[in-house]
């Protein structure tokens, strides 16, 4: 099969669901549980689940059901508000052009988002790659051009290559506000949480395409859980779920690769090489819902500090937050109240469903998001909402149906 349509064929999806049903029968016959809890770590997989309605297709057997637990693998969702504020503060400096991917513009900070900074006069531009930002820097030598770098290992190589290119082309007015995150420390933090009872994982194929498979070995070696690296088409994801269930039925815990047409065992040598050259662990980067996780975030190595926006504009603690206007003081107070009620962290860790948050659908929607999980199409709250679950009541009705 070569084309995406081949991986969306109804007969293929049906055959995979039938195969999953048979494996569920084997697990059910052991009679030890009512649910199998499988986490799809990546927001891209969450998006596939909802876009194609796959959860509704997953078969039950003798009272045993599959619960897909939506994980934190959405870089927009795990970015803490303080980093958005820092980014806005950089954007508001004189003679700065702030370049960002589109979905990052609406991530809420405590003092608004990057679109609010733009409304206050910041030059904020949407780009499709960090190289676009480098081009803008080359064309505007009198201004400082900052790229708002986000993402797991999927986007880390492109930022690293751009930093290397900026050095090679000697473009001193380019820098990176680095918020890249590593998958395996985040996954480890989930596995170390004793309140999360997960039976297995579907892991992101595009991350493994860069890193290779070995970064996941600790999941089976230390935590004895099955993990299958999977692609993003409906049949990929169903096959990944099938492979996880087959390991559970067989009492196994291995790292397997469903996405063999893209993921090779050792990953991308050029990508890993560029990442090793450019990045080191970030000393203070936190993740929303997790707090500080050892070595989860990265920053630029000292050799590249001329391209590090945090160094160029001051250390993160000393970057001034944008001062709220008088009119926004009341909005700020209201936001603080809402944030006390929001449950983004628990949704990110898969502890509750989005509809378990009291703000869902009424005080937090994709049009007026309180949490970042309502912003990105890969965020589970936005995925629920866009699937048609517009309120907590809708969810209860669906459960009763
Ligand atoms: S509904 Fe909004 S506030 Fe609640 S968990 Fe989702 S994104 Fe966070």
Automatic annotation (TrEMBL):
Write out the coiled-coil annotation as residue ranges: none
Q: Which family does it belong to?
A: Belongs to the HypD family.
The keyword Metal-binding belongs to this UniProt entry's keyword annotation: yes
List residues traversing the bilayer: none
Return the InterPro entries for the record. Hyd_form_HypD, HypD_1, HypD_2_sf
Q: Which gene encodes it?
A: hypD
Question: What is the protein named?
Answer: Hydrogenase formation protein HypD
Q: Which residues form the signal peptide?
A: none
What organism is this sequence from? Candidatus Haliotispira prima
The answer to keyword Ion transport applying to this record is no
Q: Which PANTHER family match?
A: HYDROGENASE MATURATION FACTOR HYPD (PTHR30149:SF0), HYDROGENASE PROTEIN ASSEMBLY PROTEIN HYPD (PTHR30149)
Keyword line: Iron, Metal-binding
Task: Write down the Pfam families for this protein, in alphabetical order.
Answer: HypD (PF01924)
């Amino acid at each position: 099969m070569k084309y995406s349509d081949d991986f969306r064929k109804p007969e293929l999806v049906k055959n995979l669901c039938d195969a999953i049903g048979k494996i569920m029968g084997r697990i059910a016959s052991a009679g030890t549980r009512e649910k199998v809890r499988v986490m799809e770590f990546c927001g891209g997989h969450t998006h596939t689940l909802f876009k194609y309605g796959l959860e509704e297709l997953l078969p039950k057997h003798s009272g045993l059901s599959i619960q897909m637990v939506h994980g934190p693998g959405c870089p927009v969702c795990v970015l803490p508000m303080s980093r958005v504020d820092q980014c806005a503060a950089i954007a508001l400096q004189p003679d700065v052009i702030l370049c960002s991917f589109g979905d990052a513009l609406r991530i809420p900070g405590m003092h608004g988002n990057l679109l609010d900074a733009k409304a206050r006069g910041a030059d904020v531009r949407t780009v499709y790659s960090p190289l676009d930002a480098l081009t803008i820097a080359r064309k505007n030598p009198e201004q400082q051009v900052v790229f708002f770098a986000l993402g797991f290992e999927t986007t880390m190589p492109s930022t690293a290559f751009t930093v290397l290119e900026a050095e090679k082309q000697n473009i001193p007015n380019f820098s990176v506000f680095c918020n890249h995150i590593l998958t395996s420390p985040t996954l480890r933090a989930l596995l170390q949480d004793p309140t999360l009872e997960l039976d297995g994982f579907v892991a992101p194929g595009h991350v493994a395409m860069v890193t290779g498979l070995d970064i996941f070995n600790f999941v089976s070696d230390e935590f004895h859980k099955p993990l299958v690296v999977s692609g993003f088409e409906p049949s990929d994801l169903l096959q990944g779920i099938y492979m996880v269930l087959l390991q559970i039925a067989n009492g196994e815990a291995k790292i397997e690769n469903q996405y063999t047409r893209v993921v090779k065992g050792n990953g991308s040598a050029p990508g890993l090489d560029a990442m090793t050259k450019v990045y080191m662990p970030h000393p203070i980067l936190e993740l929303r819902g997790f707090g500080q996780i050892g070595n989860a975030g990265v920053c630029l190595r000292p050799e590249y500090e001329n391209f590090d926006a945090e160094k160029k504009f001051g250390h993160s603690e000393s970057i001034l937050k944008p001062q709220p206007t008088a009119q926004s003081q009341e909005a700020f107070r209201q936001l603080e109240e809402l944030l006390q009620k929001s449950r983004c962290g628990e949704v990110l860790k898969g502890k509750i469903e989005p509809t378990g948050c009291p703000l869902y659908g009424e005080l937090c929607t994709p049009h007026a998001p309180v949490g970042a999980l309502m912003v990105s199409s890969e965020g589970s709250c936005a995925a629920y909402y866009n699937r048609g679950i517009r309120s907590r009541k809708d969810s209860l009705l669906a459960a009763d149906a």
